[in-house]
Amino acid sequence: MSSTRHCTTNYQLAALIGALDTGEIMKRDDTIRAIAATTLAIALAVGIAVAQEATLREKLVGTWLVAAVDNVRPDGSRFQAFGPSPKGILMFDQNGRFSFQLARPGRPNFASGNRLEGTPDENKATVQGSLSYYGHYSVDEDDRTLHLYVESSSYPNLDGIDNQRIITSLSEGELKWYSPAGTIGTTAEVVWKRAK
Fold first, then answer.
1. Which positions ≥6 away from 187 have C-beta within 8 Å?
2. What is the pTM of this model?
3. pLDDT over 70, % of the chain
4. CATH class of the region 56-194
5. Which residues are CB-contacts of 2 (< 8 A; sequence separation ≥ 6)?
6. Which of 41, 130, 139, 146 measures 20 to 30 Å from 166, CA to CA?
């Protein structure tokens, strides 16, 4: 009986040595290592993609068209200084520069055809129905504050100030902000849609 066991053990040992010689075990180990490495790489890639969600600043970059501007008086009543269908564009570049323009549709043309020779009513309608400024921007990611550092504006009181906005919502296609200090003694809630 012991000689039979000895023969079986020798046979198994010879088979193992033969497998090593042919590389079958090594091939199986290499396959297992390759599967493990691939699984790890996929898990890391997914983890990195989730961890690297774009910042608010990165999401802002691009061109936006105004969809709504609601002004809110101190008593809570609302009105639309730029009308029910305002026109406007807002652009943020990757280098931290921005440009902002709003206009109320239906402003009267200047009868003279010369912007320097408008009547008092034409000038008033133009000033009250439009606002533009440009400069550079930054975003406080923690409190969602957008800082618009105005270099020059059609409303000179904005020149040189930090015109802050609170970002209330930002998705791929829509930006909403709250303006705590508007230019007409109100706060403002503004909705922008990404230009296509």
1. 71, 72, 178, 179, 180, 181
2. 0.72
3. 76
4. mainly beta
5. none
6. 130
